[in-house]
Amino acid sequence: ATSKIYDIWSSGTLEIDGNFTQNGEIAMSDGKVLVHGSYGLGLTGVLRMDGGSFVCDKPYSISKAWQYMSGKMVMSGGVFELSNNSMYVNSSFEDSISGGDIRIGYTFYAPSAGTFNPTGGTVEMISGDKMVDAYVQLGSANWFHDFTYNSPGVSRVLFSDININHDFLLQAGVLNTGTPFSLTGYDIFVKG
């Protein structure tokens, strides 16, 4: 049997001081989950959000910068945030994202084809506590629905072409389309 935390209400808060690998199901309509260590969505993990906030605010550490997403994310609202670290979308990741905000403080990396295909919602790149060598990379057949770059004083590099199916908002910071390793740049395609 797999553990479940079903429906965290508006006044509910689940606070985890250490590392947390989610292998069961969490469903949120409101309320807050706050993880102060590393977070990982395990193969059997399911995160369902139609409201509330799920925040991993662990300070940046080069040895634990990747927060691995291997299970299933069902999201129609709310905020999922990795304040200072990177989101690594594994090849086993299943997304059913139709709304809400995913905020990433460092790097967004979805290298496997067809693993990140939201039909709604926004991925927002925010300023974390360590911003050297941060990047955005999507494998083929991956896209963002809405993409916001809101990283004052920060520069990130595209390591692939980026497809955006709806809106692209450049609020603050520098998003380099070329890399220091290449004379050619990458493209941003906006359909909306």
Supply database-style keywords:
192 residues, mainly beta, 14-stranded parallel beta sheet, two-stranded parallel ribbon, 18 strands, 0% helix
Give a quick summary of the entry:
This protein has 192 residues and is mainly beta. Helix content is 0%, strand content 55%. It contains no helices and 18 strands.
Which parts are unreliable, with pLDDT below 50 for 5 consecutive residues or more?
Answer: none
What is the overall shape? globular
Main sheet attributes: strand count, strand direction, barrel closure: 14 strands, parallel
Strand content: over 45%
Calculate the mean pLDDT score and round it: 88
Describe the structure.
This protein has 192 residues and is mainly beta. It is 0% helix and 55% strand. The protein contains no helices and 18 strands. Strands 1, 2, 4, 5, 7, 8, 9, 10, 11, 12, 13, 14, 15 and 17 form a 14-stranded parallel sheet that branches. The radius of gyration is 16 Å and the shape is globular. It starts with a strand and ends with a strand. The mean pLDDT is 88.
Question: Secondary-structure blueprint of this entry?
Answer:
Blueprint lengths: L3 E5 L4 E4 L3 E3 L2 E4 L3 E4 L3 E3 L4 E11 L9 E4 L2 E11 L3 E4 L4 E11 L3 E3 L9 E7 L8 E4 L7 E13 L3 E3 L3 E9 L11 E3 L2
Parallel strand pairs: 1-4, 2-5, 3-6, 4-7, 5-7, 7-9, 8-10, 9-11, 10-12, 11-13, 12-14, 13-15, 14-15, 15-17, 16-18
